[in-house]
């Protein structure tokens, strides 16, 4: 998601998102904002390292796959982790892979 946003194209192959940093700019109401985007990886292996990147964060984007129920179940844990380090900081919840979802009738 961050690669596609910052480069304007979707990568052809899977790139493991292990603590990668990206930069981009966005214009909102004629104001140019410089964005520092960190993919802190939701895996348990990085649970002690993730909070080190949280200070001075203005907003969190918490992404989960709509086709992997376990991914959504992690949202509660991630919310608690973020809120304990940066209480009151906005969190945006993003469901990904909606194009792969199969709805049952």
UniProtKB/TrEMBL annotation:
Keywords: GTP-binding, Nucleotide-binding. GO terms for molecular function: GTP binding; GTPase activity. Gene3D superfamilies: P-loop containing nucleotide triphosphate hydrolases. GO terms for biological process: small GTPase-mediated signal transduction. It comes from the Eukaryota. PANTHER family: RHO FAMILY GTPASE (PTHR24072). This is Uncharacterized protein.
């Amino acid at each position: 998601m961050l690669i596609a946003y910052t480069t304007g194209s979707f990568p052809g192959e899977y790139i493991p998102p292990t603590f990668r940093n990206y930069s981009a700019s966005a214009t909102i109401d004629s104001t140019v904002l410089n964005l520092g985007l960190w993919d802190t990886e939701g895996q348990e292996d990085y649970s002690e390292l993730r909070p080190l990147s949280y200070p001075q964060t203005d907003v969190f984007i918490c992404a989960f796959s709509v086709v992997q129920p376990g991914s959504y179940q992690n949202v509660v844990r991630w919310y608690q982790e973020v809120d304990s380090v940066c209480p009151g900081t906005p969190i945006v919840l993003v469901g990904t892979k909606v194009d792969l979802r199969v709805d049952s009738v």
